[in-house]
Amino acid sequence: MKKRPVIIASAVALLSISVLLATRGTVSYLVDAEKADNIVTIGKVDVEISEGDYEDEQIIPAGGIVKKAPQLKNNGYNDEYVFFEVAVPKKNVTLLYESDVKDTNNPGTILHKEGTKLDGYTSPKAAEIFKMIADGGNKDTVPLPSGSVEYEYIFGYNKGDDSHDGWVYLSKNDSGSDYNYYYFGYNKRLEAGNSTVTLFDKVQLKSFIDLEIADKSDTEDVNEAEMKVEVKAYGIQSDDLGIEGITNGFTGRLDQLQLTTLLNIVRNKGLTNT
């Protein structure tokens, strides 16, 4: 009798930010459980999101940076493979340079002044409002799409590879009108009771022309507008998956192909936005 249990858990953390105010809430819950034949005990998958020193009720001006360091803890009984989905809001805005850009070939010459429009922004267009910043020793950024303006889509993360435990960038869905979705997988099976490294460590509200996204219904402060960064986590038990190369007791680091295969199992359960 072969056991084929698949348990998927999901957790959600919201970073709700206005230009002036941020609030957050978290929730975790068991989404799905399957068992084969009459086997009843198939373990427990339970992932918990923590966000480090993130504080509610912060003042966040355009260009401001706040601490927000999502990581996952395995509170279940079984080892798990875990994933993050991050929804980054996008708005029709005019992005601005956040600092002076100097001409490296002509020292002392400033090509672009802080607060001026980013190259390519003659008028507002869809752009991500937040930038993720990683502080780990093996940090990296998600590759920019071809033809992108520098700093337009910056997503920093603490990268995992053959020598480091960490996160592997898997894919991005930018087909929506309001959010871009990023998917990451942790490159090690997460043992019960253990935690991952942080996905990223800070979030920056990009510099843009504030009034382009202001909530005009707020007559007291037309410069205020609420936006949310949604972070979801998924965990799937590591044993009895029946996937070639990821057998019971596998303790090696996973690559992008292996993690994508696992994420597709989660997608087949209808739990993600792609």
What report would you give on this structure?
The chain is mainly beta and 274 residues long. The chain is 5% helix and 36% strand. The chain has one domain. It has 1 helix and 16 strands. The longest helix is centred in the C-terminal third of the chain and has 13 residues, at 256-268. It starts with 6 loop residues before the first strand and ends in a 6-residue tail after the last helix.
Q: Can I get a quick summary?
A:
The chain is 5% helix and 36% strand. The protein has 1 helix and 16 strands.
Distance between the termini: 34 Å
What structural class results from the helix and strand content?
mainly beta
Give the overall pLDDT as a whole number: 76
Number of domains: 1
| Rg over alpha carbons | 21 Å
Sheet bearing the most strands, described?
7 strands, antiparallel
Total strands: 16
Helix content: under 10%
What is the percentage of strand-forming residues? 35-45%
Q: Spans of 5+ residues with little confidence (pLDDT < 50)? A: 1-5, 16-42, 218-223
Helix run count:
1
SSE blueprint:
Elements: E1 7-18, E2 22-33, E3 47-50, E4 65-67, E5 71-74, E6 80-93, E7 101-102, E8 110-112, E9 125-128, E10 130-133, E11 139-141, E12 156-158, E13 167-173, E14 179-186, E15 202-205, E16 226-237, H1 256-268
Antiparallel strand pairs: 1-2, 1-16, 3-5, 4-15, 6-9, 6-14, 6-16, 7-8, 10-15, 11-12, 13-14
